[in-house]
Amino acid sequence: MTEPAELPAPAPQPNLETQPFWDATAEGRFLLKRCDTCGTVIWYPRFLCPDCHGTETSWFEASGRGTIYTFTIVRRGQGPYAGAAPYVAAYVTLDEGPTILTNIVGCPPEQVEIGQPVEVVWHDTGEGSALYRFRPVG
Amino acid sequence: MSIRGKAHIAGIYEHPLREIPDRTLSQIHAEVALGALADAGLTLSDVDGYFCDATVPGMGGLSMVEYLGIRVRYLDNTETGGSSYLGHVGHAAAAIAAGKCSVALVTLAGKPRTSRGGNRGGMSDAPEGSFENLWGLFGAPYGYALAARRHMWEFGTTSEQLAEIKVAASLHAQHNPNALLQQVVTVDDVLGSPMISDPLHRLDCCVVTDGGGAVVVVSPEVARDLERRTAVVLGHGESQKHTDNGRVDLTYTGAVWSGPRAFEEAGVTQADVDYASIYDSFTITVMETIEDLGFCEKGEGGRFVLDGALVAPSGKLPFNTDGGGLCNNHPANRGGMTKILEAVRQLRGEAHPAVQVPDCEIALAHGTGGSLSTRMGSATLILGREDVR
Description:
Pfam families (chain B): Thiolase_C_1
CATH class of the largest domain in chain B: Alpha Beta
Radius of gyration of chain B: 22 Å
Organism (chain B): uncultured Acidimicrobiales bacterium
GO molecular function, one term (chain B): acyltransferase activity, transferring groups other than amino-acyl groups
Strand order of the largest sheet of chain B: 6-9-8-7
Number of strands of chain A: 8
CATH topology of the largest domain in chain B: Peroxisomal Thiolase, Chain A, domain 1
Largest sheet of chain A: 5 strands, antiparallel
Largest sheet of chain B: 4 strands, mixed
Number of helices of chain A: 1
CATH superfamily of the largest domain in chain B: Thiolase/Chalcone synthase
InterPro entries (chain B): Thiolase, Thiolase-like, Thiolase_C_2
Helix content of chain A: under 10%
Oligomer: heterodimer
Radius of gyration of chain A: 15 Å
Domain Thiolase C-terminal (chain B): 241-384
Distance between the termini of chain B: 20 Å
């Protein structure tokens, strides 16, 4: 399921709307919400569909796969990331549609490229949740 | 001018519960919004003005419009304690009378009875927070670096082209005795400065300065009796750009909406603009904004800025003749005020003689707030010389 973090893994602060998402991360499951009315995949998870404004939504398990939309190499970390640089922050477009903020791990920063296919890896926060990060596939 | 008879309250909704421990603040805002709109026979899709106080969760109204999945033309975060909402209705009426919005939504939500610490709100409750604050991104540069990288990938933009923007700003700053950085720099200087967040170098970033500024806006009646030359407000536009339910596109900014609104109101085109103050937190901010305001096609910014295009007085788009945020001043980490000030100096003919645009009649000032292209506010002002009618 989850593996030891190569980057710091600060714990998220779930709220009542996002608790199911973060609970699932502890089991290595990436949940997304879909609008029951218009079928749109919703990101970030919330009470209503930001496309059609319907309020009936359902969780489903995502593939955990995507492609890198853009990235940057952070040269100096702060807070829990002090001493962790260099590391890569990126937007990844999930196969299900949404483009989300995350880190790229599992390869040297200089080998990261826009358009690379990636898959999710889970980094345990030690507080009943795990962070979704992505590594290049193949 | 009076707002009497210019606006009506069309729908109301009072939340039926008095203890709501099982919902977020955002959700309660959404519930009362849907209720009042239903009462009026309207939907969220009809809303083009949003009014709220400073206790909303997240980054004020920006987080709430994203949460609700709306994009409005008029956003008002006026915070006056318990009287806020009366003020909001007044503001909404004035805005409607002026044509700034047509369906204004005002919401209030709080959980002081069941939430320890009362109505926290603010960034600590930002609905997007738990998905964006985890990845080791600190400070402003990283969001802009992500945009720059994507702009390069899509359009072939280069670090050399971005550097040209800093070079132009430095050519202006050498004439400003108050500028923090008065030394002229070259493209090589920019590329040789330390990498802050790939692909942005230190000299791609604005200065960090203390300071401030102010403007006084008056009615035409007041202005008529003033001896000092004024600048006339010809047009105004504003917009928000957010992550749009995961449809992130970092290659354009909210200027694509604020710009046309300002141009239309002013009745001028890009070709009429003699001088432009362009928000310049980073070089990429300027490049995307120039494209988005229609001074060139999307993706052509890299070529547009070559050959001294931004250099006053003779470039095709003289910009930031005070040296801008890149060299002169970025007080309180907010560069919008100084953008207005230099535009007014140009229209008064009071910029430094070396950078004064001859016969400057029309000036544009553009401001950018938040994180480029993901959760940002954009505002465009078009100003005219006092005698412009």
